[in-house]
């Protein structure tokens, strides 16, 4: 089974009017931060909030009448599930989605919303997929693989065709890699449209399966990542050969870099992006010298992020940047002192978020107390100014939450 640039062009014609032609936009601010020209392809603006809409539609539309009537089956806990379920409903095709038993309820509900039958089975996606392969022949269903299928790859590749039409000066593309369907299709068409363009992949450091596979190494993956959409243990067989031929390097991104990229896209581009969707930008920011002076197309592959995860990333980002700190302040246990400390912080421009007044449980001397105060600040320099103000007023303060920690006595 092979995929060609012509297959991708045909897929683009098929997709015309069926999915969102997402924008490719230049980011002035991210370009300044990264030291290169950054153009973002916002695939998180698809109806199901990921690039998976592309391949799902192309695959389902290719089925003959008998296959459509019988139905399809897929294994996924996220974006592939929603893409298949949504387009199957549009095309009148019964869809079954096998999801791991512990899939969060909101993902199950969202997939059910598109009319799919949900089967919860297995401890992980690999077990779910194996179960789908058992069900398919028994019920006469067509398996829709998430990435290792020529139609899927052709559909995903249309993203690069659009990028190079909208930003023809791109000299570099960087694409998230899970199983390889997106980068495989994009690499094929980009190499044909613009020979000489460099194509790089971005994998989560905890799941470097494609990089290990191409190096002939044992595939060793595992751990908790916010980029669960690319946390793949089995790279595609078709996709790995495309990547081998057309992708010059695969960069690994760690969890802090992924968190930072999600936060940047939210704060700078006002765009909600999942961990996997931020992987390409994270790779650029983690390897600035590698991209210096280039014109880089960055694929923002999806935006399906759990609200609690997004909230945690926001708060952790504020802490890392010194915009939210926790101070421990020693005070005399006397009337008016707490008010004095609050006044000092306010006059220095800090905004008090929480106060914990400890008298009994921290081995504090009888006539003293400890204050733990969470303060919103502008930056690290602003924190230093607040600490200095407290010190000069006779209140020793320790900063408990920062990258470096600080104490003023």
Distance between the termini: 70 Å
How is the largest sheet built, in terms of strand order? 1-2-10-7-8-9
Query: What's the β-strand tally?
Result: 15
CATH class of the largest domain: Alpha Beta
Morphology call: elongated
Average predicted confidence as pLDDT: 92
Give me the Rg, rounded. 25 Å
Q: Give me the secondary-structure category.
A: alpha/beta
Largest sheet: 6 strands, mixed
CATH architecture of the largest domain: 3-Layer(aba) Sandwich
* Unreliable residue stretches: 403-409
- Beta-strand share of residues: 15-25%
CATH fold node name of the largest domain: Rossmann fold
Helix content: 40-55%
Q: Total domains, how many?
A: 3
Q: Helical stretch count?
A: 17
Walkthrough of the structure:
A hairpin with a 6-residue loop joins strand 14 and strand 15. This protein has 3 domains: 209 residues, 3-Layer(aba) Sandwich (Rossmann fold); 92 residues, Rossmann fold; 87 residues, Alpha-Beta Plaits (2-Layer Sandwich), CATH 3.30.70. By secondary structure, it is α/β, with parallel strands linked by helices. The longest helix is centred in the middle third of the chain and has 17 residues. It is elongated, with a radius of gyration of 25 Å. Helix 1 crosses helix 8, helix 1 crosses helix 9 and helix 8 packs across helix 9. It is built from 17 helices and 15 strands. The strands form 3 sheets. The protein has a 6-stranded mixed beta sheet with strand order 1-2-10-7-8-9.
